[in-house]
């Protein structure tokens, strides 16, 4: 019963989940194998969005609660590492692919 | 007002993720796609910091700490990403993934005391525990994957009754979660125990996996972290986290399956099957039968290459390890100057990750046209004079076609044995990464060119110049 109730009150979320799953599948199909690594890396950076949770925790934390502050701070750092590192690494990989395009067009 | 702006920012961010992922799957738009996604992320993060309000209308506090953490993470992440060598890219992706997993696990650890034993509904607790478990598995698994790819942990450790032990861990995770949810276990210590068991499971999960299967595992852990982020989105009712997490979760899963297909293996086979560890699988017929191989020197190789019409280079991870991607480009240019047609045959899983070889060769300015994918190059081998295999092994192993007992049986390979001559550069006769003997070494058309890829190629280039 609780599940039905939950579904009913969170119908918008259920829609989002289902549509996002389908979108994720659709977007990835037909990727050339050359791009598997950058794509994985790019997707890796996107799930760094989990940092938003860390930010919310940090922003709500009572500064006198040292444990929560410390763990939250650590979580923000780790999340940022995921986001920044992920996007920069992906960009570096893709930069390699772009380099040969000028070379190709010169011919 | 601020709340609407926040939701709109999240909407824009979600659209940017989707566009970014879509563009990442095409070679021309990929780089821009990455920037789109990064921009979406920045928007979502900044909007959260400045516009988020909780149920009582309070804004977020502790901005100094938030920005401090972001600053530390940005500097470290940026430096690490910029400095990492192209060859070390796969483990870098893995460790960044682990950081995201750890972040999700920490969120679970911090949030559960607010709900657990304080009347939080079962569904809220379920999302918290799910994020905690999946994040922990992803974190410890990624760290092990990093260590293995980085060479800190070379052996594929396989415990006895490995599958049974792992199944017991999974059962323990589910059992503890269920007992916590229904209220049988009320001591918060059990939540920490749950986190510890999940961490241990992540280690056990990745430790026996090796060979070409590593990228598949990283991709799988990647989708795990996506799911953990999505559970965080549920917990906070946060749309940006939800869409981002689910997108990566589903896209990552499909990518994992696509990678498995490229190797003609199933996901269960990768996770539960041994790869290069089952003793019986190594070199059937290999024991007892004396096999002989030919050796060729650098100068003979230079002559052979110089007077060929067409040469196909098969690069593998050995080339990357030896940092020989620049020398091989020099060799290719030298041969081209002398009217030899040179191409590179790129196996889908050459290197440690699909596309890894392309990235490396592109780094040393090899032209895009010269990198030929497997399906396109295979018919050309019959008219190829010399195939030069540098640091590759399993991707040219005919056992994948001929020997049903081989662990790589069924994996599509580069059919180099159709070429007129084969030269394989290896450091020794040791088995390749997957730990399987290669009958190609003993093929009548093949000659072995022993030595470190880089030094051999350097002397090959020097030798060619004298001809």
Descriptive notes:
The complex is a heterodimer of chains A (107) and B (467). Chain A starts with a helix and ends with a helix. In chain A, 56% of the residues are buried. Chain A is mainly alpha-helical. The longest helix of chain A is centred in the last third of the chain and has 41 residues, at 66-106. Chain A has 2 domains: 1-30; 32-106. Chain A contains 5 helices and no strands. In chain A, helix 3 (36-46) runs antiparallel to helix 5. Chain B is an alpha/beta fold and 467 residues long. Chain B folds into 3 domains: 1-83; 89-275, no CATH class; 298-466, Rossmann fold. Chain B has helices at 2-24, 30-51, 63-83, 89-115, 122-149, 162-182, 189-206, 214-236, 239-262, 267-272, 298-306, 317-321, 325-337, 356-363, 374-377, 399-402, 453-466; strands at residues 310-315, 341-346, 371-373, 386-390, 421-426, 446-450. A 6-stranded parallel β-sheet of chain B has the order 3-2-1-4-5-6. In chain B, helix 1 (2-24) runs antiparallel to helix 2 (30-51) and helix 13 (325-337) runs parallel beside helix 17. The N and C termini of chain B lie far apart (77 Å). The model of chain B is unreliable at 274-289 (pLDDT under 50). Chains A and B meet through helix 1, helix 2, helix 3, helix 4 and helix 5 of A and helix 1, helix 2, helix 3, helix 4 and helix 5 of B.
Give the tally of β-strands of chain B.
6
Fraction of residues of chain B in helices? 55-70%
User: How many H/I helical runs of chain B?
Assistant: 17
Rounded mean pLDDT score of chain B: 85
User: Which pair has the most extensive contact?
Assistant: A-B, 83 and 118 residues
**How many beta-strand elements of chain A?**
0
* Count of all domains of chain B: 3
- Sheet with most strands: strand arrangement of chain B: 3-2-1-4-5-6
Note the run of SSEs of chain A as H and E. Answer: HHHHH
Strand content of chain B: 5-15%
Regions with little confidence, pLDDT below 50 for 5+ residues of chain B: 274-289
Rounded to the nearest angstrom, the radius of gyration of chain B is 26 Å
Number of helices of chain A: 5
Shape of chain B: elongated
**Largest β-sheet summary of chain A:** none
What is the straight-line distance between the termini of chain A?
A: 68 Å
Going by helix content, strand content and strand pairing, the class of chain A is mainly alpha
The overall average pLDDT of chain A, rounded, is 84
